[in-house]
Amino acid sequence: MAPSLSLLLICLLALYTPVTSKKECGRPPLGDGKELEGFQRVYSPGDEVVLSCKRGYTPTSGSRTILCTASGDWTKSKLTCSTKSCSFPEALNHGDMEFVDIVYQSTINYTCHEGYTLQGASTIECLYDGQWSDPPPKCTPVICGLPPIPKYGKMVYDRKLTGNTTVFGFGGTYECFPPLVLIGNERGSCSTNGDWTEPPECKLVTCSAPTGIINGYMTVSDKREHGFKETVRYGCNIDYVLDGPVEIECLKTGDWSMKPACRASCKVGIKRGRILYNGKKFWIKDFKPNKISHADVVLVYCMNKEKKCGYALSTQCIDGKLKIPECFEEPSDLTYKFNYDSLPSEIAQC
Known about the structure:
Binds to various kinds of negatively charged substances such as heparin, phospholipids, and dextran sulfate. May prevent activation of the intrinsic blood coagulation cascade by binding to phospholipids on the surface of damaged cells. It is found in: Secreted. The chain has 350 residues and is mainly beta. The protein has five domains: 34-83, Ribbon (Complement Module, domain 1); 95-141, Ribbon (Complement Module, domain 1); 145-203, Complement Module, domain 1; 206-263, Ribbon (Complement Module, domain 1), CATH 2.10.70; 274-342, Complement Module, domain 1, CATH 2.10.70.10. The chain has two helices and 28 strands. The chain has helices at residues 3-15, 333-338; strands spanning 34-36, 48-53, 57-61, 65-67, 80-83, 95-98, 107-112, 116-119, 123-125, 138-141, 143-144, 153-157, 166-167, 171-176, 181-183, 187-189, 201-203, 206-207, 216-218, 226-227, 231-236, 240-243, 247-249, 261-264, 274-277, 280-283, 297-304, 309-316. A hairpin with a 2-residue loop joins strand 25 (274-277) and strand 26.
């Protein structure tokens, strides 16, 4: 065979010989908190790369090196990156803080209670180096001036006052010089808006001469004006009961407190029968004197004709009036005298 022909055949065979190529690796998977320097897209088998932790993360364990294998896969990374933490925040006096975590990029929101002002950042963030972006703020009280003092009055402070300023919550009690009366707020304090609460006034208060009550009397006979907190007592005539306070007082409004009234007693208006009063049974002829006081309760007996049993029903004396229940049936004189054991009060009770 000619040498030139042999060379041609060898070249043709070379074209059809299979070529075995090695697979390449893409960029390695990084996972949380990891990073890789450089921007190389493709790696050859045998190439090694070194992983590191991102800013704000700390390596805790495992090798940083991974290898591109002939199969085009990376060896498994054993590097672990944990998020950096900041110090636990101290409690905010007179305020609140809101946060979920104290790791890198976490935030804390601060607010102050009513009457206090935030001094510092309202939000701070945990930075990559484990430090907070700002120092924690403080809540300082609202500042007021000195309290307004009413004419002819004074204020007794809750604690010692120093200087010409006061702070939120500082306060005291107002007093008027006798015989003047304090009208308005008895206490004052430095409020949330930096002003003091509305001060009271000191006034001379008198009430007109007290008047009597029907069927009663007063313990004083002089018809004069009375000053604030002066009192007058009342009583009732015989057979009347005092309904209300025994004593009335001159109020700071210049009016008297509510007067009592004298209420009349009541007569039990039945002629024949038995009643229950103060836990005891009485035949009406033996109930002497036939009188109960205002607001007292007496029970009369009625008949349940269907069940043939008796029952007691109450009624109350209201200022001389006592209504006998409609179910009460007064027995005849003969029944009352000779067959009284058949009355509703004497038979079995329902």
